[in-house]
Amino acid sequence: MMFKLGALLMHPASKYVLLAVALLFPALASNEYQVYVMATAFVWAIAVYGFNVITGFCGQLNLAHGGFFAIGAYTVGLLTSDAGWNFWPAFIAALFMTAILGFLVGAVSLRLKEHYFAIFTLCVGFIIYLLLDKWEELTHGAVGVRNIAAPDGFGLVNFRETMPVYYLVLFFLVFIIWFTGRIQKSLVGRTFIAIRNGDELAESLGINLMKTKILAFVISTTYAGLAGALYAGMIRFVGPEDGNILLTFNMIMYMLVGGIGTLFGPLIGTVGIVWLTQSLQFLEEYRMIIFGPLLVLLVIFFPLGVCGSFLTWMHRKAQALGLGPKKAKSESKVTTSDQEAKNNA
């Protein structure tokens, strides 16, 4: 029964069911706040998809990912609040800014390997946080950037309201999932996975390690910048804490819970943890007493994440069902041959 249910969930049409549920969620929600929480979860999911590209696909642990999220948010905030730009030109500028900085940081940091790379990017993330907090002439320091412009609407659509913003964020999330799926199935995605499996193996296949790693790094930082830009337009305020290194570790948690290297893991992990956190808000500072053990149990019983463990279970189940008929067929052949021998005797 569970296998049939799993097969149903893994059916190609299931993604359309998920999309239909997402489209209908505002009508099913009890209040506007729930719609706002879901929109925020979608924004974080976009950033986690970027983290999944560089870490889940390519195997490079970038601990500065939250910093690039903040760069995207601050680019939109400063250009709209201080320079008077409209949202969408500032949004495009945020994508270019995070892509360019991602290229520069990647060109330097990706010369290092494994934990050296992780430590270097951790330092980069902390430097970004310090710049946001201390460079008052540019970033306004601890005060942050206020009065950020909302996305420009059209016709009767006003992105200052929660419902239109929800569908705007959902549109970008669907695009990111589709684009990530295309990457995963493409030759580029296979080169990412080859590098994750081992640099020596990838080099033996003729893959340019540096070029491929930088490409993955730039894609991931652009995802983070896109999420940060949407976050700034939705919240309309950004501060130094939006670049805190703790946000990167939150993204790691979302990705690990959902399933590292899977297509829908970042979405399931992010939405699940965000709503679990919201449901425990009534416990205030004591909520971690319940939240912490739940995460520990999840890691123990689902070490590959929800999606990763489920896919592994499905694969093993399919193998078991595939071997069963063959075994039965071979046993029937042996029985038939024995019977024929007895008849001949």
TrEMBL record:
Localization: Cell inner membrane
Protein name per Swiss-Prot or TrEMBL: Branched-chain amino acid ABC transporter permease
Pfam families per UniProt: BPD_transp_2
Organism from which the protein derives: Marinobacter zhanjiangensis
Transmembrane regions: 39-58, 63-81, 87-108, 115-132, 164-181, 214-239, 251-276, 288-313
Residue ranges of the region described as Disordered: 325-345
Keyword Membrane applies: yes
Main location as per UniProt: membrane
Keywords linked to the UniProt accession: Cell membrane, Membrane, Transmembrane, Transmembrane helix
Database matches in InterPro entries: ABC_transp_permease (IPR001851), LivM-like (IPR043428)
Composition bias, Polar residues: 333-345
Membrane topology (UniProt): Multi-pass membrane protein
